[in-house]
Design brief:
Blueprint: H1 3-18, H2 22-35, H3 40-52, H4 56-69, H5 74-86, H6 93-107, H7 112-128, H8 132-149, H9 153-167, H10 176-191, H11 199-213, H12 219-232, H13 238-250, H14 255-267, H15 272-284, H16 288-301, H17 306-318, H18 322-336, H19 342-361, H20 364-375, H21 384-396, H22 400-413, H23 418-430, H24 434-447, H25 452-464, H26 467-471, H27 474-486, H28 491-504, H29 508-521, H30 526-538, H31 542-555, H32 562-574, H33 578-591, H34 596-609, H35 612-625, H36 630-642, H37 646-659, H38 664-668
């Protein structure tokens, strides 16, 4: 076949393809290939015809053969792209990307429109495959091409916005280069905005700041973006809110941070980040109750701020609301999610604070939970303070030997650390080794004199120490007073001061003041509440006693605050107010249904009220719970006598006299 005949056959093949006579086209191409087996166009036409006849493997082979013959001719590459685009097979995606890359190379210096079309297709393909770095790099090439063409600023702006749209929700966990390209796209888009300031520019600024706020390593960029937006849009609170939360989360509580908190509060007093910032300021100024109030209010509006939850827990620890602090730490950990980078350090701080709060709560269960928290701290074994907390947890669990082992190791490795000596003091105090406990607490105080707890425990050590200190509690008093001075929220030390003034100094008035202070600080401290009420009664100040009891019973949940209900019920019983007495004594029994004395008092209240059947049941219950309560047995007989059950009453009186011969009420009965 001559070259003229080859050209004619190829022309016929092209005409056949145009007329959709694909089998005819194949015949012409095969005829050409018999004489010219490396004819590029023949292989391309075979590829086209085979693809239309749904013979993809043959089509692919033909295109590949043509490409091998002429790798820089675009026809075969174009055909192969069309073939892959129609395929439903997942494995062709990577091959299609390679084909698009080659077409971009071939169109680079030629057809610009085709180059842009292929570029768009490649971006879509990479996006489907979630290859976000490749998306960014390809789109950047398109923008560079447009810049070379000298397109209008407005078109470039839209192109940068397109790359932002493609990447902003998908680069959080991706390659750093993709993230860098996204941030650069924001900056170029902001610079190329049509109107500055303007609505589009403002929204872009907001999106840029939101994007930066999710990236802990972009602090300098974030601060600049917030400051730039604040300068252009001084009435918009968003950049200030983000900046405030950034300062909170970074732990940077500088003058700039405080200025931001105050400025935001002035602009919007209800802003969550602003209120949180003011709470942290109160914490710095040691206004702990105000800090708790502000941080709690701020976190109701802005919950996803782990650092703010941590500061709230810290403030709660300062006022000894340990259970609240544990809950705040749990919220902080939940808000933190799966931490990395700077957030990993936050996780360690939160877990350590949580463990410390659990130690203060006391008990084996809380200690076990504290140990679990400490186990999650990275490099916990190398931190002596964390080890000291672990030692206290073991002590609270009753594992004295394990606590002692940690204590000995810390005293050897960190003899200058106050916590090392304090742990040794706690262990010796728990074992009543008071002389050694005294030395340890004195060593701890020498290294950290401002810790109220050390002074309190040294005071307790002196209280129980020896015959000499038992007679003279002056040394204990000195330490208790120092602890109270250092920490005015430490309720337990005011209870110990109350014990001193009541039992040693015999100063009931001052003792009552201390007990009242202790109870105000810790409403769960029943001992202090009871003592404050009892002393008020002894001092003839029934109004003060009732004030305390009323406050407790108003807040009490069902089945709690037995002591308060019982005290007030007995008061009403003494003052012949049986209806009120019955109500309060019933409430006390809901808290402790096995209190025989309380049942006996309830029987008396019913008796005063004239409810004889109810009185009889109450006295019977009291004597069932405690058969030694002769008065309850007698009262039951007396009620039976009132009800006319004389034989039953006589039998009970005789029963009492068999065990207690001279029990006058029974004889009289």
């Amino acid at each position: 076949m001559s070259s003229k005949e080859v050209k004619a056959a190829l022309k016929s093949a092209r005409e056949a393809i145009r007329n959709k006579e694909y089998k005819e086209a194949l015949k012409h191409c095969k005829a050409v290939l018999k004489h010219e087996k490396n004819n590029y166009n023949a292989w391309v036409f075979i590829g086209v015809a085979a693809a239309e006849l749904e013979q993809p493997d043959q089509a692919k082979g033909a295109y590949r053969k043509a490409i091998d013959l002429e790798p820089n001719q675009f026809l075969a590459w174009q055909g192969l792209a069309n073939l892959y685009e129609k395929s439903n097979q997942a494995d062709v995606k990577a091959d299609l990307a390679d084909v698009y890359q080659k077409l971009l190379e071939l169109y680079e210096s030629g057809d610009k429109q085709k180059w842009c079309n292929v570029c768009n297709k490649l971006v879509d393909l990479y996006q489907q495959e979630k290859k976000y770095l490749e998306v960014a790099e390809t789109w950047q090439k398109l923008i560079q091409k447009k810049q070379e063409e000298g397109v209008e600023k407005a078109e470039l702006h839209q192109l940068w916005k397109k790359i932002i749209q493609l990447l902003k929700d998908n680069t959080q966990d991706q390659d750093n280069k993709a993230q860098h390209l996204l941030l650069s796209a924001f900056e170029f888009a902001l610079d190329s905005a049509d109107a500055i300031p303007g609505e589009d520019h403002q929204n872009l600024s907001k999106d840029f700041i939101q994007c930066l706020s999710k990236r802990p390593y972009e602090t300098a960029r974030l601060e600049k973006a917030c400051n730039d937006m604040m300068a252009l849009y001084p009435t918009v609170t968003y950049p200030l809110e983000v900046l405030c939360l950034h300062f909170v989360q970074s732990g940077t509580l500088s003058e700039d941070a405080l200025h931001c908190f105050l400025r935001l509060s002035e602009m919007d007093a209800s802003s969550g980040p602003g209120i949180i910032g003011l709470g942290i300021k109160c914490l710095q100024e040691k206004k702990y109750k105000e800090a708790v109030k502000s941080l709690t209010e701020g976190l109701q509006k802005t919950k996803q701020c782990p650092a703010a939850w941590y500061y709230l827990a810290e403030a709660q620890m300062k006022i000894h609301k340990h259970r609240d602090a544990v809950l705040s730490c749990d919220q902080a950990l939940e808000a933190l999610g799966t931490p990395e980078g700077p957030n990993l350090q936050w996780k360690n701080h939160i877990l350590q604070l949580k463990a410390g709060a659990l130690i203060k709560i006391g008990g084996a269960d809380a200690a076990e939970e504290a140990i679990k928290a400490l186990e999650q701290i990275v490099d916990a074994s190398s931190d002596p303070v964390v080890l000291a907390i672990r030692g206290q947890a073991y002590l609270n669990k009753g594992l004295v030997d394990q606590a002692l082992k940690i204590s000995q190791e810390l005293l050897l490795s960190h003899p200058d650390l106050a916590e090392s000596h304090a742990l040794d003091g706690f262990i010796n105090y728990s074992q009543k080794n008071y002389e050694q406990a005294e030395k340890s607490f004195l060593n701890a105080i020498e290294r950290k004199a401002e810790t109220a707890e050390y002074h309190q425990y040294l005071g307790l050590t002196y209280w129980f120490m020896s015959d000499e200190t038992k007679k003279d509690k002056g040394k204990a008093l000195t330490q208790f007073l120092m602890a109270a001075k250092l920490d005015s929220y430490l309720g337990s030390v005011f209870r110990y001061l109350g014990n001193y003034y009541r039992d040693i100094a015999k100063d009931k008035s001052r003792a009552r003041g201390c007990y009242k202070k202790a109870f105000e600080l810790d409403e769960t401290d029943e001992e202090s509440g009871t003592a404050a009420v009892d002393l008020s009664v002894e001092l003839g100040d029934m109004d003060a006693a009732l004030s305390i009891l009323n406050e407790v019973t108003e807040k009490a949940r069902t089945g709690t605050a037995k002591w308060a209900w019982l005290h007030r019920g007995l008061y009403y019983l003494r003052t012949r107010q049986p209806l009120k007495a019955v109500t309060d004594l019933q409430a006390a029994l809901r808290a402790d249904p096995k209190d025989a004395n309380c049942w006996e008092s309830l029987g008396e209240a019913y008796l005063d009220k004239g409810s004889y059947s109810a009185a009889l049941k109450s006295f019977r219950k009291a004597s069932e719970l405690n058969p030694a309560l002769v008065y309850s047995v007698y009262s039951a007989a007396a009620v039976k006598q009132i009800l006319g059950k004389y034989e039953n009453a006589i039998a009970v009186y005789q029963q009492i006299l068999e065990t207690t011969e001279e029990y006058l009420p029974a004889l009289k009965g």
